[in-house]
Amino acid sequence: MTDSDVLWLRRSAVLFGLFLQLGICFGQHQPLEFGNVPLEDLKSNKCEIDSGATAVILFDVIQVDLTNHKDRYVRHARIKFFKPDAINSWSKVNFLYDKNHRKISGIQAATYNLVDGQMVVTNLNPKNIFETKVSRRISKLSFAMPQVSSGSIIEFSYTISANYSSGGLLINGLAPIYSSNLLDFSWQYQHDIPTYWSEYTFQGGFRASFMQGEFSIENKQETKNGIETNRWTIKNVPAFHEESNSLPKSDLIGKMYIDFSERTWGQIGTPFMRLANYGMNPKDSSLLRQLADKFETISSTKVKLDSIVRYVKRKLKWNRLVDQYPDREFGEVFISGNGSSCEINLVMMALLKKAGLSGYPVVLSTRNHGTVRPNRPRATQFNDLIIAVAIPQTPDKKEEIILLDGTDRNLSNEYIPMRCLNGYGLMIDGIESKLIPLNEPRSKTVLSASLRLDESKKEAEGALEMSFSGLHASNERSSFDSLGQDRYEERLSVMYPSKTDRLSVLNLSNSNLPLKMSFKLRDGELSKFSEDHIYLDPFVIKPDENRFKSASRIYPVDLNPPQDLTYMAKIELPEKYLVEELPKSAAYSLPNNSAKFSYNIVQHDTILYLTSQLMFNRVVFQPEEYASLKEFYSLILSKQSEPIVLKRKTGN
């Protein structure tokens, strides 16, 4: 089993086993035909498997039919509400679909209420079904259930089927990529509220099913007239509860995936090369040549690459759409001055290639979309695109693959956005297409304080310099842009109560340089003066409590992005005082050096020099590692809370 599989499958068998053992005594709540709602369901006032649940899914039934090229997906669900908290999120139905290749039909929806002991039915008005354009290719269909309150039951059903009549699939070249796999055949059987009954029926042969989670699921198989049918059923599924610093919910929640074709990553990648507008050979050759000429005189490969990326970031603004397929040609995107993630990066790749560099598209799955599973070659795992550039091998250095993205103007060119840090991406190179790790350098924050103790004012004063690189710098630049300096400084004053003057900022507009900020400090909170002692807290800022509070962990801990946090302090001692007590230097680490912390303090004449560094060499920690990680943070907090004690010299 690969590390990626472990991240998808590892769960707490003890917790879920308890729910499954208890489940045998609960009601069956089997699916019923539309409109056949038992009065006892309307009268119920609490969930049988979780008395505190705000709502429960009575049943959720999905049928997929791939026989005779139907490619049809039918869903029928019924939900009971107990408290108003769940109404806003669960009384609305919405889903995304590719309008060019899919069509929606058979929508039914109704709300059932108990009034004076009788059932009152309110049907959805078709005029209240709305379709919203998300992108040129993707649409969202949505409707809100009518007359929903505590005690209500809602019911809805709809059908999504392949739209072969449009011809769009063949025209835009996606058919070889998806084959007959036009629909997402995943089955999510766990949600944020409990589920009494979830059922998934699949008609048509398939190669394999992949389970995410460790629930016990019943599967019945039968074959009639050469048609294979699989029916999976699970009962009494507990609600999914997120944990802090966890992997995205899409990687943890109970779900099953169906694959029915034998393919390699090379076979998946090959058809991408034939997409007409994939940026390989732009039709706008004269515009491309004109733009590429701007970089022709640059001899250094690295400088040329950096110049092109900065040029694209400056000229094109990201419209916040994430996509792996462009809707427009090179020239249209460039002239408009904006584009989706895919369009901006393919424009950048076309320029790189025209300038003599080797650029390749890399399709990936964003963090909210789910981790790419290496053992499932499947195009539907992807939803975004960045670029890889191969720097040629030299006698003393192997070929280097550099990942690039043009959507975040605040991010240094050597980093890719947080949304892309999700395991693997598929580098498109025909039959040689291959999965590559989506790694990047650590993001760094360095805080440098200079302090001196003013005995006459009985307080510490000095200055703090901050330096941010990577994703840390991007986050701060984005906050500064959105808040403006005044509101940004207000936020900073909460984090650093000892801040006294206006902030000085360097490199705000140059994302390829570390973002630097500085301000003066004056704070009696850092020091406590007594008759003959001074107690100094040398840390201007530090976490005041352990970020890991729970006793145990169900899901892995995710500490992305990779980071390096360093605090340095230069402390000038008052001439009438001696050091009576100094914290000892220390070093802590987790097994295999997955995380390291060092604390070092030394004295030279009347100056103390302190350095504290926390560095992660791995960002995902399994539940069984949680206790060690929690203790690691406790040791850090304990060490950082140790004061420096100064004593007045005798005779002063």
Describe the structure.
By secondary structure, the protein is of the alpha+beta class. Helices cover 19% and strands 35% of the residues. The chain is built from 13 helices and 35 strands. The chain has an 8-stranded mixed sheet with strand order 5-4-8-2-1-10-13-12. An 8-stranded mixed sheet has the order 24-25-23-22-29-33-32-31. β24 and β25 form a beta hairpin. α8 crosses α11 and α9 runs antiparallel to α11. It is globular and about 100 Å long. The N terminus is likely disordered.
Keywords:
single chain; 652 residues; eight-stranded mixed sheet; 35 strands; alpha+beta
Write the layout of secondary structure elements.
Elements: H1 3-9, H2 13-22, H3 39-43, E1 55-65, E2 72-81, H4 87-90, E3 92-98, E4 102-115, E5 118-123, E6 129-133, E7 138-144, E8 153-162, H5 168-171, H6 175-178, E9 187-188, E10 195-203, E11 208-212, E12 218-224, E13 227-237, E14 255-259, H7 265-269, H8 285-292, H9 301-315, E15 317-318, H10 330-336, E16 338-339, H11 341-354, E17 358-364, E18 384-391, E19 400-404, E20 424-427, E21 434-437, E22 443-454, E23 459-468, H12 471-495, E24 504-506, E25 515-523, E26 527-529, E27 533-536, E28 557-558, E29 563-572, E30 577-581, E31 586-589, E32 595-604, E33 607-616, E34 620-621, H13 626-640, E35 644-648
Parallel strand pairs: 1-10, 15-16, 22-29
Antiparallel strand pairs: 1-2, 2-8, 3-7, 4-5, 4-8, 6-7, 9-14, 10-13, 11-14, 12-13, 17-18, 17-20, 18-19, 20-21, 22-23, 23-25, 24-25, 26-27, 27-35, 28-34, 29-33, 30-35, 31-32, 32-33
Helix pairs in contact: 8-11, 9-11
